[in-house]
Design goal:
The structure holds two protein chains of two kinds.
Chain A (H helix, E strand, L loop, with lengths): L3 E4 L8 E11 L2 H16 L3 E7 L5 H11 L6 E7 L4 H6 L6 E5 L8 H8 L9 E5 L16 E7 L6 H4 L1 H5 L3 E5 L11 H11 L4 E4 L8 H22 L3
Parallel strand pairs in A: 3-6, 3-7, 4-5, 4-6, 7-8, 8-9
Antiparallel strand pairs in A: 1-2
Helix pairs in contact in A: 1-4
Chain B lengths: L1 H13 L2 E12 L6 H11 L9 E7 L2 E4 L4 E3 L17 E4 L3 E11 L1
Parallel strand pairs in B: 1-2
Antiparallel strand pairs in B: 1-6, 3-4, 3-5
The chains are: A alpha/beta, B alpha+beta.
């Protein structure tokens, strides 16, 4: 804490002073520190880590079910599932030979780096290649909390409308990848694909965009290719750091 | 909120404060925090603490984006950060993500 305390000299009675203490400290500094610890720990295990954000009902769990069934044949994946109250999402993902840990946050509407660190203690990180953190369904506060991930992925579905990026700019601006899900329903719900793409590109010019249907499997190969490239680039990076 | 109250509490203890008069926060437009929701939460968390009569003063910090092509800092009018000179999308945010406890005003007893 910065101790530049200044007395303003408003001494109304003997011994009583009014002072302004300058602090200048970011309120999420502790989370940022823990996130860096997580990041180092993940890197030590050569693990790729995805923080998956979306509004409720965009299909995060469905996307992960299919990812475990298909991409999980070639890679060992761990899943952390953040949920406010139930463990329903975690239950849907279990029974697949990939470890799943439920993180029930209670009243907290997002995951924090410390919750992730605690949940990771239940996983054998050394045996995993990819860790996917399914954040609490919410596009507001999860965007402010770094969990130590390599990549932040925002999922939006065609049933939510085209203007999500304009309403929740922070989530989209901090994402490396945006996945549009339920592309099989686009026509039925009159989803304006061109407008949605334009909104994503203008709010989040840094982000890659992939269009999928986790239900029919359309476009999922693009997502797996993306994950594969991520794991490959991390492997190259750690090979460059660790002398052979 | 928890972090805010613990910083305020530490400062109060170090200064031997008897009460907290005001808490000054800097909140960036892109901090992800809504000042109204923050004020609402503040009123409930200060109850029964040394800061129960404290005023919450929030300064909004505008977004400043940067265009590396034009070497230009600019304040975008909305969530689309277009460089006003070249029209390219900017990805570099120089200001506006703050969520900072700036200062605490308190009454102390010598």
């Amino acid at each position: 804490m910065n101790e530049t305390s200044t007395s303003c000299g408003l001494e109304s009675q003997a011994g009583i002073k009014h002072r302004t203490v300058v602090i200048q400290k970011h309120l999420l500094a502790k989370n940022a520190q823990q996130a860096e610890c997580n990041r180092r720990e993940f890197a030590r295990h050569g693990l790729g880590v995805i923080n998956l954000l979306s509004a409720p009902g965009s299909g995060k769990t469905k996307l992960l079910e299919r990812t475990l069934d298909e991409f999980g044949k070639r890679y060992r994946i761990g899943i952390l599932v953040g949920d406010l109250q139930t463990e329903n999402d975690a239950v849907r993902l279990e029974g697949r030979d990939h470890p799943v840990v439920a993180v029930t946050t209670g009243n907290v509407c997002h995951l924090e780096a410390e919750m992730v660190a605690l949940a990771c203690a239940e996983l054998d990180l050394a045996r995993l290649q990819l860790l996917v953190i399914e954040n609490v369904g919410n596009l507001v506060c999860p965007a402010s909390f770094d969990l130590g991930e390599d990549q932040r992925v925002v999922l939006l579905s065609t049933t939510e409308g085209e203007d999500k990026p304009l309403k929740y700019p922070k989530a989209f601006k901090t994402a490396q990848l945006v996945i549009i899900n339920k592309i099989d329903l686009a026509e039925a719900v009159e989803f304006d694909r061109a407008a949605a793409l334009q909104n994503i590109r203008s709010v989040a010019p840094q982000a890659n965009i992939i269009q999928v249907s986790a239900r029919t499997g359309a476009g999922m190969a693009d997502w797996y290719r993306y994950l594969e490239q991520l794991l490959q680039s991390l492997a190259n990076k750690s090979a460059a750091v660790v002398p052979q | 909120m928890e972090e805010l109250m613990s910083l305020v509490d530490n400062a109060a203890r170090e200064q031997n404060a008897t009460s907290i008069e005001a808490i000054h926060l800097a909140v960036g437009e892109l901090s992800g925090v809504d000042p109204q929701a923050l004020s609402f939460a503040f009123d409930s968390v200060v109850q029964g603490t040394i800061a129960r009569h404290a005023k919450l003063v929030i300064s909004r910090i505008a977004v400043i984006a940067y265009c590396p092509v034009c070497s230009l800092e600019f304040t975008p009018p909305d969530v689309v950060y277009l460089c006003p000179t070249c029209g390219r999308f900017s990805q570099e945010i120089r200001q506006g993500t703050e969520l900072t406890l700036a200062s605490v005003e308190m009454t102390t007893h010598e």
